[in-house]
Amino acid sequence: MPAARSTAQSAVKSAVKAAAAKSAPRNVADHLCFAIYSAGHAFNRVYKPLLDELKLTYPQYLVMIALWAEDNQTVGEIGGTLFLESSTLTPLLKRLEALGYVTRKRDPEDERQVRLTLTDKGSALRTKAHDVGACVGAATGLTLEDAVRLRGEIAALRERLMQAAS
């Protein structure tokens, strides 16, 4: 199986190189990656005033969303969900703990694992953050159906890119 995977990855990389050579964009605005990168910045500009009211950064907000969906996760589980390394997460989680939104404790069954649990204050923040997604959704101008379709396409693109990079 590993040999087949390696062959498939080689084929994908070759196809990508061939396509890139034929249609290499000359201007930054013509790059798909720039469109996604700059859209991310535009999202952050919309999120910032909404999250400032909650005293959260966007990555902290993502952690809170993950914990609101399922409390008592390990740092590794959160990192896997958000595609972040624990070295990136740790300072962010310490700030969430200092704000009183989460507690970090070693897992008694596996001391190598750190578990994150919402505090009452962190759980209550969910109510205050309730309208953030709707506000950002409205700012996109997309219908719910178009937003779901686009999210699916971008997630599939991410998966293909991650496969090609490994």
Please provide a written account of the structure.
The structure is a single chain. The protein is built from eight helices and three strands, in the order αααβααββααα. With 166 residues, the protein is mainly alpha-helical. The chain has a domain of 86 residues: Arc Repressor Mutant, subunit A, CATH 1.10.10.10. A three-stranded antiparallel beta sheet has the order 1-3-2. The longest helix has 22 residues. The protein is globular. The chain starts with a helix and ends with a helix.
Q: On the 0-100 scale, what is the average pLDDT? A: 91
* Main sheet makeup: 3 strands, antiparallel
What is the level 1 CATH name of the domain at 45-130?
Mainly Alpha
Into which percent range does the helicity of residues fall? 55-70%
As laid out across the biggest beta sheet, the strand order is: 1-3-2
CATH architecture of the domain at 45-130: Orthogonal Bundle
Tell me the series of helices and strands, N- to C-terminal.
Answer: HHHEHHEEHHH
Which superfamily, in CATH terms, is the homologous superfamily of the domain at 45-130? Winged helix-like DNA-binding domain superfamily/Winged helix DNA-binding domain
Distance between the termini: 15 Å
Q: Give the uncertain stretches in residue-range form.
A: none
Gyration radius from CA atoms, angstroms: 20 Å
Number of helices: 8
Number of strands: 3
User: Based on CA inertia axes, which overall geometry fits?
Assistant: globular
Which oligomeric form is depicted? Answer: single chain
CATH topology of the domain at 45-130: Arc Repressor Mutant, subunit A
Strand content: 5-15%
The structure class reads mainly alpha
